[in-house]
Amino acid sequence: MSTAYDNIVKIIKDRRSIFPASYIKKEIPVEVINQILETANYAPTHKLTQPWRFVVIRKAGLARLGETLGSLYKSKVSSQQFLQKKYDSFAEKTSQADCIIAINMRVSGKIPEWEELAAVSCAVQNMALTAESLHVGAYWSSPPLIDDLGDFLSLGENEKCIGLFYMGYHKEKPWAPNRTSMEEKVRWLEA
Ligand SMILES: Cc1cc2nc3c(=O)[nH]c(=O)nc-3n(C[C@H](O)[C@H](O)[C@H](O)COP(=O)(O)O)c2cc1C
Fold first, then answer.
1. Atom 31 (ligand 1) nearest CA
2. CA-nearest residue, atom 10 of ligand 1
3. Which of 88, 131, 160, 189 to pair with 81, CA 20 to 30 A apart?
4. 129, 141, 166, 167: residue to mutate for ligand 1 pocket, most atoms within 8 A of CB
5. Does the predicted TM-score (pTM) go above 0.85?
6. pLDDT in tens, 98-140
7. How far apart are CA 22 and CA 170, in angstroms?
8. Which structural domains are found in the chain, ordered by start?
């Protein structure tokens, strides 16, 4: 019989970033999206500021996001730097996803900003693990253009977009993650 430890370690280790090119055309039911979102709310949060805020982007919203990212890219780079392939990639990736959740942080002013960021990151990891458990592929995308999505997402003054959580069903076979050993990242002080 598998224990709680076995179950959680399997989900943690099996979770991989699954990118839009791997997504298949299959709708993620709203109930599943809500299951994924619900677990974000159980992340640890200093002074209970609960800084995670999300905008769920689906259907025609995806094309609008792709167009917005493309326009922002065009407006930011000079004509010499402009790459048509890069411009096209925004609409391509957003159209491959079935759902994209904008990851936003609300800064309370009650704690250092890095603690709000850390809490939102914990929330996103909860989402990533829940997505894995429901066989939904996902990854956290953080192009610099997210700094300019405030209008598109109708963010408040104390809110900041820190990523786009792409999601889609997929048929990728599991693969081993690329990690060096833990021993080189841990020191024990026992005296
Ligand atoms: C905060 C954060 C931002 C990330 N931004 C990007 C990104 O912009 N583009 C990208 O390809 N992957 C991004 N990733 C995903 C990483 O590429 C991925 O986690 C890494 O390759 C390890 O693979 P794994 O998630 O399958 O273990 C991001 C991950 C995190 C945690």
1. 140
2. 141
3. 160
4. 141
5. yes
6. 999 999 999 999 999 999 999 999 999 999 999 999 999 999 9
7. 6
8. 4-185 (3.40.109.10)
